[in-house]
Design brief:
This protein is an all-alpha fold. It is 58% helix and 0% strand. The chain has one domain.
Length: 74
Amino acid sequence: MSTFIAAFVVLLLFFLLMSIGYIVKKKAVEGSCGGLGVLGIEKACDCDDPCDKRKRRMEKEQARNELLNQNRII
């Protein structure tokens, strides 16, 4: 039982430290600079013909980016 309590306290300590880091830096936790790009994969779904759900999501992203570019001041 003492091992469980010690592990729980250590976990809470890490959460506390990460939250303090977020509050101080105002920056979210990020992943590593590796990932799929290191393996030469451009996207998570590396298929030639994406599914309909992915196509709709890509169209929404493209429309949002076009709208942002239209309303950009600089």
